[in-house]
């Protein structure tokens, strides 16, 4: 995590310097500062500072060194449980189809959303309660 913090600090310095260079270059070229590019580059620098600060606070509060930061660590040391994802479930496909039709309706015509919402809700409820019915019921 220390490497990530250093990378985001370097990115922050880079974007800050780039914002200054961009402003000066625009001032020399057009006799005025171009506000959109200058502000966006400055905000990229600020965002990198926010991320570096968050990672630094997380590193300080975790109470130990991550496996990625130890030189004597093995690959298995950083292997954590990511969750349980059943490979035979069709509910994510139903939910994705309902969401795709809903976004299509938002871009084309709003009445299509009315047909997509039931599919998305059925897919969401089916996926959440997949293990509470049938052979897998608890």
Helix and strand layout, with pairings?
Elements lengths: L1 H29 L4 H27 L29 H17 L3 H18 L10
Helix pairs in contact: 1-2, 3-4
Question: Can you give keywords for this protein?
Answer:
138 residues, mainly alpha, 2 domains, 4 helices
Structure commentary:
- With 138 residues, the chain is mostly helical.
- The protein folds into two domains: 2-71; 91-129.
- The chain is built from four helices and no strands.
- It has helices spanning 2-30, 35-61, 91-107, 111-128.
- Helix 3 runs antiparallel to helix 4 (111-128).
- The longest helix is centred in the N-terminal third of the chain and has 29 residues, at 2-30.
- It is flat, with a radius of gyration of 24 Å.
- It starts with a helix and ends in a 10-residue tail after the last helix.
- 7% of the residues are buried.
- The mean pLDDT is 89.
Please provide the ordered H/E string of secondary-structure elements: HHHH
Averaged pLDDT: 89
Rg result: 24 Å
Beta-strand content bin? under 5%
Q: Give the terminus-to-terminus CA distance.
A: 40 Å
**Helical content, roughly?**
55-70%
Q: Give a quick account of the main beta sheet: strands, pairing sense, barrel closure.
A: none
Name the overall outline.
flat
Structural class: mainly alpha
How many β-strand stretches? 0
Query: How many domains, as an integer?
Result: 2
Poorly predicted regions: none
The number of helical runs is 4
């Amino acid at each position: 995590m220390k490497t990530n913090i250093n990378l985001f600090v370097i990115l922050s310095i880079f974007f800050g310097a780039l914002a200054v260079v961009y402003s000066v270059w625009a001032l020399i070229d057009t006799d005025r500062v171009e506000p959109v590019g200058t502000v966006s580059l400055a905000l990229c620098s600020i965002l990198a500072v926010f991320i570096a600060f968050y990672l630094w606070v997380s590193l300080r509060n975790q109470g130990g060194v991550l496996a990625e930061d130890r030189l004597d660590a093995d690959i298995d040391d950083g292997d954590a449980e990511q969750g349980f994802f059943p490979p035979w479930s069709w509910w994510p496909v139903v939910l994705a189809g309902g969401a795709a039709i809903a976004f299509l309706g938002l871009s084309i015509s709003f009445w299509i959303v009315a047909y997509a919402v039931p599919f998305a809700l059925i897919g969401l409820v089916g996926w959440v309660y997949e293990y509470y019915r049938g052979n897998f019921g608890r």
